[in-house]
């Protein structure tokens, strides 16, 4: 233990020293890095100092050289001065005379020296500037040389790349050339093969021509001899031939008519709203019928507008009947579309209604213009609306004309030629586009008129709401007209296809009676084909039928023997039944004896003190005997003196001696009464639980139905919300042009959406409550 403690102490000391050394190492590393950075900076400073020192040394050398020159010059001048002084001593006398001259020479020398010094300085400056210029030029030339070398390297790399690319291209072209040569060789071989096959095909074609010519001659001979007449030559007979049934075409036509029916329903709803809201407007503007009497003209106009439903509704009914007449089994041609005539008649009645209300509508607009509140801009809008209403009536008359022409083949086929078929559909498409353009103009002018009327000081909220409703119906009419026009234009090729059945190359329509006969023949042909496709019943093979006949004959010969065997079997069965009854009675008597012995043993054990246990065993035995006795009710007729013994399940009748056990009877009565009351209570509780479970089950089913209905209503409401959101987005797009006229309508739609959201929240709450109730009922049922 001491050794381990010492080792741990040494280990801790070593760890501490290692951590200290590691920290010191980090500090030393930082110091080394700092010293390295300082050394690099000092090296750079040393280099700069060396450069400056070299410059200064060069300057010192140049100055020393110049000083040496100047010193030599001074020495020369001093020597000359000494010589002049020696000469002065000798010629002292003459010196005074020449002193003036030496002074002048000294001045000259001084000036010369000064000039030389200035020239030396100037030369030194020029030398320094030339040296700097040379260095700068050398550095520029060196940098330019480096740039040129880099450019040369780049150009060389580009040249190498281009050379490599060109080599690759050349290699690729050579490979392509080799491939093309191989391909040309294969094509030449294929051309040779094709020539051979062409010759073979030509030979086969000649053989086929000869074979077909012989078969044609044979067929013509058979037709001349066997066929009595050719019904395709006559248009009347050809019309009775059943054409090939094109199911896809029938389904497409039904789909197209279904789409047209949906568009017509939208238009009918928009027209009903437009006429109804126009009637409301006539009642409140320019004179409100609630406060004053409107003019007789407006009264008559309102009366006619009130009848709009009787003219507009039949359009939807006529189109619906036309849609129902197109089925998958029929052939939809113009001769068989008799329901198109009824739609044309309904459209004619509506056009007559438009003609009837047009003068009153124009007069009503004139009456609004004559009002004192009508401004010039409002009068201009009313005039534009008058022109638009005339155009609307004219376009409906044009549509009725073309639809009545399409309905002619089903009534009077000689009134319409097939050459005019495509032009009628083209005119209908152009008329529908014109209807769309007119509705856009009406929407534009009416929105301007409503905006101007809203600015009037006498405009009421009722008038503003009515104008908004009329605008919404006009917008719906515009959208419906646009959908119908685009739908008809997109499917114009399908409509202009040959919808009328007739002979090939025929230019006139066939009689509708012939088309009706053709449809009857088609039904008969379809029924005949169904009969052909009906599987035949399975028949018995001939050999098996012969074998069965032999067996039947042999069985009829031995009929008497079989009858005797059956009689003997019946007698044996009767004897066995009697023996069965006898042994059943014996078994019953043995059971009765066993019960008597059990009663005696029970009485003995009662006297000894073990009565309760024996009673239970006696009751169980009596229960078993009672169950068996209920199954064998026939034995009661044989028993003589009935004695009633009570048990848990009721009364048991048996045959016994004149032995009486009054104490056992009273005890049995008490036990029986107790258990019978208990059984009655349990059965009543069971019946109550069953009735409650049935009731709860019915409630759960009702709640499930309500839940499914709520889910369906939720889906329908979500769909309505989606449609409402789509309509909101569409209205927002149109809001740029008619913003002011649609503010009230958007507020109404937002209120409707809020109410829808409230209903949705209520429905969700009801669904949650229903779910909770169903869960509670299921828990109750499980507990019950």
Describe it.
- Keywords: Coiled coil, Endosome, RNA-binding.
- Pfam families: KLRAQ (PF10205), PPP1R21_C (PF21636), PPP1R21_helical (PF10212).
- By secondary structure, this protein is mostly helical.
- Helix content is 83%, strand content 2%.
- The protein contains 17 helices and 2 strands.
- It has a two-stranded antiparallel ribbon with strand order 1-2.
- A hairpin with a 2-residue loop joins strand 1 and strand 2.
- Helix 14 runs antiparallel to helix 15.
- The chain is extended.
- The two termini are 75 Å apart.
CA-atom Rg in angstroms: 64 Å
Strand arrangement, largest sheet? 1-2
Q: How many individual helices? A: 17
Beta-strand content estimate: under 5%
Uncertain residue segments: 501-509, 610-624, 626-661
* Largest sheet data: 2 strands, antiparallel
What's the end-to-end separation, in Å? 75 Å
Mean pLDDT: 76
Number of strands: 2
- What is the string of helix and strand elements? HHHHHHHHHHHHHHHEEHH
| Helix share, percent | over 70%
Briefly note the structural class of the backbone: mainly alpha
Shape: extended
Strand-helix topology:
Layout: H1 2-90, H2 92-226, H3 235-238, H4 247-284, H5 296-306, H6 309-325, H7 339-370, H8 376-407, H9 421-454, H10 461-490, H11 492-496, H12 512-533, H13 542-557, H14 559-608, H15 611-631, E1 642-647, E2 650-655, H16 662-734, H17 743-783
Antiparallel strand pairs: 1-2
Helix pairs in contact: 1-2, 4-5, 4-6, 4-10, 5-7, 6-7, 7-8, 8-9, 9-10, 14-15, 16-17
């Amino acid at each position: 233990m001491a050794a381990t403690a010492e080792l741990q102490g040494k280990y801790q000391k070593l760890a501490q020293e290692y951590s200290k050394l590691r920290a010191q190492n980090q500090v030393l590393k930082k110091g080394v890095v700092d010293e390295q950075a300082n050394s690099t900076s000092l090296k750079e400073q040393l280099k700069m100092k060396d450069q400056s020192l070299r410059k200064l040394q060069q300057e010192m050398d140049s100055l020393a050289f110049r000083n040496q020159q100047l010193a030599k010059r001074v020495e020369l001048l001093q020597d000359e001065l000494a010589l002049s002084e020696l000469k002065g001593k000798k010629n002292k006398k003459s010196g005074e005379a020449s002193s003036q001259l030496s002074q002048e020479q000294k001045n000259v020398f001084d000036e010369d020296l000064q000039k030389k010094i200035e020239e030396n300085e100037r030369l030194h400056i020029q030398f320094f500037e030339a040296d700097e210029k040379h260095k700068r030029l050398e550095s520029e030339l060196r940098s330019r040389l480096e740039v040129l070398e880099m450019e040369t390297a780049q150009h060389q790399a580009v040249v190498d790349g281009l050379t490599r690319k060109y080599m690759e291209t050349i290699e690729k072209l050579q490979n392509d050339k080799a491939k093309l040569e191989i391909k040309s060789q294969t094509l030449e071989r294929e051309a040779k093969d094709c020539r051979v096959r062409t010759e073979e095909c030509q030979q086969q074609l000649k053989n086929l021509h000869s074979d077909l010519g012989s078969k044609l001659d044979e067929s013509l001979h058979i037709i001349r001899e066997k066929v009595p007449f050719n019904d395709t030559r006559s248009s009347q007979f050809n019309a009775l031939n059943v054409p090939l049934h094109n199911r896809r075409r029938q389904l497409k036509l039904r789909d197209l008519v279904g789409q047209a029916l949906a568009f017509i329903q939208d238009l009918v709803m928009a027209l009903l709203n437009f006429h109804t809201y126009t009637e409301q407007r006539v009642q409140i503007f320019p004179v409100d019928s609630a406060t004053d009497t409107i003019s007789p003209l407006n009264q008559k106009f309102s009366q006619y507008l009130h009848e709009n439903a009787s003219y507009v509704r039949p359009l939807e009914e006529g189109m619906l009947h036309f849609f129902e007449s197109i089925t998958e089994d029929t052939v939809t041609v113009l001769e068989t579309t008799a329901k198109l005539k009824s739609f044309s008649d309904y459209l004619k009645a509506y056009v007559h209604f438009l003609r009837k209300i047009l003068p009153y509508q124009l007069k009503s607009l004139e009456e609004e213009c004559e009002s004192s509140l009508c401004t010039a801009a409002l009068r201009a809008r009313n005039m534009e609306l008058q022109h638009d209403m005339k155009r609307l009536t004219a376009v409906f008359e044009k549509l009725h004309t073309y639809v009545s022409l399409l309905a002619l083949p089903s009534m009077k086929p000689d009134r319409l030629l097939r050459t005019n078929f495509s032009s009628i559909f083209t005119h209908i498409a152009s008329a529908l586009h014109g209807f769309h353009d007119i509705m856009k103009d009406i929407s534009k002018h009416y929105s301007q008129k409503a905006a101007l009327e809203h600015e009037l000081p006498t405009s009421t909220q009722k008038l503003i709401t009515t104008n908004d409703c009329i605008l919404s119906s006009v917008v719906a009419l515009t959208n419906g007209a646009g959908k119908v026009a685009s739908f008809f234009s997109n499917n114009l090729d399908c409509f202009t296809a040959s919808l009328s059945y007739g002979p090939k190359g025929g230019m006139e329509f066939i009689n509708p009676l012939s088309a009706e006969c053709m449809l009857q023949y088609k039904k008969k042909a379809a029924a005949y084909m169904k009969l052909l496709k009906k599987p035949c019943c399975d028949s018995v093979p001939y050999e098996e039928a012969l074998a069965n006949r032999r067996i039947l004959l042999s069985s009829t010969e031995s009929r008497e023997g079989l009858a005797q065997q059956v009689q003997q079997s019946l007698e044996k069965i009767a004897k066995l039944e009697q023996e069965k009854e006898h042994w059943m009675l014996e078994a019953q008597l043995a059971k009765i004896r066993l019960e008597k012995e059990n009663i005696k043993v029970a009485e003995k054990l009662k006297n000894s003190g073990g009565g309760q246990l024996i009673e239970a065993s006696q009751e169980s035995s009596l229960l078993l005997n009672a169950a068996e006795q209920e199954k064998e009710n026939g034995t009661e007729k044989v028993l003589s003196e009935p004695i009633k013994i009570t048990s848990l399940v009721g009364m048991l009748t048996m045959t016994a001696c004149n032995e009486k056990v009054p104490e056992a009877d009273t005890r049995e009565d008490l036990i029986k009464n107790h258990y019978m009351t208990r059984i009655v209570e349990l059965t009543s509780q069971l019946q109550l639980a069953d009735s409650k479970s049935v009731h709860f089950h019915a409630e759960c089913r009702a709640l499930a139905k309500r839940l499914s209905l709520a889910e369906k209503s939720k889906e329908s409401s979500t769909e309505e919300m989606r449609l409402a959101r789509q309509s909101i987005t569409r209205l927002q797009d149109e809001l740029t042009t008619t913003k002011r006229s649609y503010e009230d309508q958007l507020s109404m739609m937002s209120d409707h959406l809020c109410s829808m959201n409230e209903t949705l929240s209520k429905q969700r709450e009801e669904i949650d409550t229903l779910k909770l109730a169903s869960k509670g009922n299921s828990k109750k049922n499980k507990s019950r």
